[in-house]
Amino acid sequence: MRVRPSVLLVAIATAAMAGSLLAPSAQADDHRSWAVSRGGTGPTANLRLADDGRLTLGVGLHGRTVLEPGALGIVTDEGDLTSGLKFVHRSDRKVHERYTATVGKRLKRTVDQTESRFDFENADGARLGVVVRAAADGIAYRYVVPDARVDGVKVTKEASTFEVPDTAPAWINTWSDGNYEAAHQSTSAAGAADDDYAYPALFRTRGTGSDGDYVLLSESDVTGTYTGSHLAHTKGKGEYRVSLADEEVNSSGPLSTPWRTVTTGDLATVTESTLNDDVAPASRVKDTSWIEPGKVAWSWMDGGHEAQRSLEKQKSMVDYAAEHHWEYTLVDDGWNTTDWMPQLTAYAKERGVKVLLWLHYTDVDTADEQKAMFDKLAGWGVVGVKIDFMDSDQQVRYKWYDGILKETAARHLLVDFHGSTIPHGIQRTWPQVMSMEAVHGAEQMNVTAANVSVLPYTRNVVGSMDFTPMDFQTGKIPVSDAAELALSVVYESGLQNFAGSLEEYRKRPELEKFLETVPTVWDETRLVAGDPGKKTTLARRDGNRWFLGNVTAGEAHTEKVPLRFLGHGTYTIDVVRDGPDGLVRESHKVTADDTLKVEVPADGGFAAVANRT
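The chain above was modelled as a monomer; its predicted structure follows.
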């Protein structure tokens, strides 16, 4: 979203979920605490029922506590389900699924989780189910109200809290009425100011460096049956409270809330995690053959409204995209005052380029408006939409998202949401969603190098992130040219909307060559080295090629990168770095036993690609 007046994942095969292993019913006096884990080296969820009938959930990892017990429960119009609860029943099952994403850090994915459901009731007989999942990379839980009235249940409060150690370093950004675009701040769990904070929120609960214990808090499977949430915090303690965007949530029939997710492990485990997608519902789009991610020529930051109204300008964007093997061009706000869009789509089609169009959400606010607009655009040959300025986490807006996702899928239209919420597993359920904004991105014009290097561990963990890099013409890029180029690897987005002017691209031929070859989806992602807000080195694999991106906030230095991720064989690695007179390319023969050394300027970085020889 500008400051101005979903792949998601496709299930290719789902292995049978192991049958439920039901634990016998028991009285509350016999059952006060339970553990849920996947086994092996993953985290454990520790559930406890206190004497006053209040529930808590903490998280442990390798015998250490990463989250102290936090409150559980909800309040509905049928009763208070936060205290006075008695244990009724527990059931367990194994969840094993395989699915293929259309975008993301890793396309082929396997889910191996343990799920336990705990049923409780209060003195009036009202029931609450707590469903807990444990995976190798985290814990998730949700509430179920199984016996809601036919006309539904109203939720007025969640008691849920996350209890983070007071001194834990924190990388968080504020949330304001559904806006996620504030810059991240580096603080501590207790030291953060009184405010509302956005998901995902990152904390280091133990240790130092990338080997410490990290926790990333977020949510998944948010739809129009509920509402979005954020974290409320009071300075002086490490408690973060789940705060609903609506004062009252109306649900029809039995209620299942969104998942509250706790991704945990070392920094690599958190960065490489797909937990938020893994707990989301399977794809609702059976045939995904029409869904194609790619690179996008985008002229908004090189001309604003005027550029969008110029057919000649947009033809030049098409020509550039065709010349450099970019798949798309995006026409932003202003096109709707013109009458030449069918002409542009025909021009683009002749050159093998596809056209995306910007919409204000009010253009498609109602079901009738959605059908009419999407039919018109599809008839013109437009293949996708960027929808902007929703800025809301309320239930009514999630019902709107539900409608948009259904109608775009039906017409084979790709979607990029701006001015939006974060991905909540949406790219698994609706694989036409290529990206979402919800980030302090290039359009803000005041991004810092620290902000650039914190996003791989926060916002981009939970789904594709439309940062819109390469805006050289603005003079506002906070990092070196090579580091900016590296963002094409460091940041994952199914549609990479590159914001530069054609003139600035042409001044950087090594950048043009690299962007011609870099993909926007990946077979594998590895965090090679990292420190939130200070440095990121990511390796991403596309087939037999490994791409490497490094961004650093700090002084000039020699960056040393172990190449163990390469595996067997000899590779030629081409490195694009900053030279005294611009970008330069260097080639080296390397193996997995080697360490790559690159001279990096202050707030700099580099991009590289390794091909097996």
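The longest helix spans residues 395-410.
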